[in-house]
Amino acid sequence: MKTMTTDELLNLLDANEDLNVIDVREDFEVEQGMIPGALHIPLGSIPEHTGELDASKPYILVCKGGVRSANACEYLASQGFDVTNLEGGMMAYDGELEFK
Protein backbone atom coordinates (compact mmCIF):
# COMPACT_ATOMS: atom_id res chain seq x y z
CA MET A 1 0.00 0.00 0.00
CA LYS A 2 1.27 3.45 -0.90
CA THR A 3 1.62 5.90 1.96
CA MET A 4 2.29 9.61 2.26
CA THR A 5 3.39 11.72 5.21
CA THR A 6 1.48 14.80 6.29
CA ASP A 7 4.53 16.90 5.31
CA GLU A 8 4.31 15.50 1.77
CA LEU A 9 0.60 16.30 1.68
CA LEU A 10 1.17 19.83 2.97
CA ASN A 11 3.78 20.41 0.26
CA LEU A 12 1.29 19.30 -2.41
CA LEU A 13 -1.42 21.52 -0.91
CA ASP A 14 0.98 24.49 -0.78
CA ALA A 15 1.81 23.89 -4.46
CA ASN A 16 -1.94 24.02 -5.25
CA GLU A 17 -1.82 20.52 -6.69
CA ASP A 18 -5.19 19.13 -7.79
CA LEU A 19 -5.68 16.51 -5.08
CA ASN A 20 -8.48 14.04 -4.42
CA VAL A 21 -8.61 13.57 -0.66
CA ILE A 22 -11.22 11.32 0.92
CA ASP A 23 -11.86 11.66 4.66
CA VAL A 24 -13.26 8.37 6.01
CA ARG A 25 -13.93 9.59 9.55
CA GLU A 26 -17.40 9.71 11.08
CA ASP A 27 -19.62 12.82 10.97
CA PHE A 28 -18.82 13.91 14.53
CA GLU A 29 -15.08 13.74 13.74
CA VAL A 30 -15.21 15.84 10.57
CA GLU A 31 -17.06 18.55 12.53
CA GLN A 32 -13.65 19.24 14.12
CA GLY A 33 -12.28 20.19 10.69
CA MET A 34 -11.22 18.57 7.44
CA ILE A 35 -8.38 18.97 4.96
CA PRO A 36 -9.56 21.70 2.54
CA GLY A 37 -11.30 20.23 -0.49
CA ALA A 38 -11.60 16.75 1.00
CA LEU A 39 -14.59 14.59 0.20
CA HIS A 40 -16.26 13.06 3.25
CA ILE A 41 -17.25 9.39 2.89
CA PRO A 42 -17.40 7.54 6.24
CA LEU A 43 -15.54 4.22 6.17
CA GLY A 44 -18.70 2.12 6.43
CA SER A 45 -20.15 3.89 3.37
CA ILE A 46 -17.16 3.40 1.06
CA PRO A 47 -18.54 0.30 -0.77
CA GLU A 48 -21.79 2.06 -1.71
CA HIS A 49 -19.95 5.20 -2.93
CA THR A 50 -17.32 3.60 -5.19
CA GLY A 51 -19.54 4.29 -8.21
CA GLU A 52 -19.14 8.03 -7.52
CA LEU A 53 -15.33 7.82 -7.67
CA ASP A 54 -13.27 8.13 -10.85
CA ALA A 55 -10.95 5.13 -11.23
CA SER A 56 -8.64 7.21 -13.46
CA LYS A 57 -7.82 9.59 -10.59
CA PRO A 58 -5.49 8.95 -7.64
CA TYR A 59 -6.98 9.33 -4.17
CA ILE A 60 -5.42 10.14 -0.79
CA LEU A 61 -7.35 8.64 2.13
CA VAL A 62 -7.32 10.06 5.65
CA CYS A 63 -8.87 9.21 9.01
CA LYS A 64 -7.98 10.15 12.59
CA GLY A 65 -4.85 8.03 12.96
CA GLY A 66 -4.32 6.12 9.72
CA VAL A 67 -5.87 2.73 10.50
CA ARG A 68 -9.37 3.19 9.07
CA SER A 69 -7.99 4.93 5.99
CA ALA A 70 -5.60 1.98 5.51
CA ASN A 71 -8.61 -0.34 5.56
CA ALA A 72 -10.38 1.88 3.01
CA CYS A 73 -7.21 1.88 0.87
CA GLU A 74 -7.11 -1.92 0.87
CA TYR A 75 -10.73 -2.12 -0.19
CA LEU A 76 -10.50 0.57 -2.91
CA ALA A 77 -7.22 -0.89 -4.24
CA SER A 78 -8.99 -4.25 -4.58
CA GLN A 79 -11.61 -2.45 -6.67
CA GLY A 80 -8.93 -1.06 -9.02
CA PHE A 81 -8.42 2.40 -7.52
CA ASP A 82 -5.06 4.19 -7.16
CA VAL A 83 -5.01 5.03 -3.45
CA THR A 84 -2.52 6.40 -0.94
CA ASN A 85 -2.89 6.30 2.84
CA LEU A 86 -2.03 9.42 4.86
CA GLU A 87 0.31 8.24 7.63
CA GLY A 88 -0.76 9.37 11.09
CA GLY A 89 -4.04 10.77 9.76
CA MET A 90 -5.52 13.95 11.13
CA MET A 91 -3.63 13.50 14.40
CA ALA A 92 -0.41 14.18 12.45
CA TYR A 93 -1.87 16.87 10.16
CA ASP A 94 -1.18 20.43 11.28
CA GLY A 95 -2.23 22.30 8.16
CA GLU A 96 -5.22 24.45 7.35
CA LEU A 97 -8.66 23.07 8.15
CA GLU A 98 -12.02 23.49 6.47
CA PHE A 99 -15.24 23.33 8.45
CA LYS A 100 -18.49 22.11 6.90
UniProtKB/TrEMBL annotation:
Record SMART domains: RHOD (SM00450)
Residue ranges constituting the Rhodanese domain according to the UniProt record: 15-99
Leader peptide range in chain numbering: none
Pfam families xrefs: Rhodanese
CDD domains assigned: RHOD
InterPro entries: GlpE_sulfurtransferase (IPR050229), Rhodanese-like_dom (IPR001763), Rhodanese-like_dom_sf (IPR036873)
Protein name: Rhodanese-like domain-containing protein
Organism: Solibacillus palustris
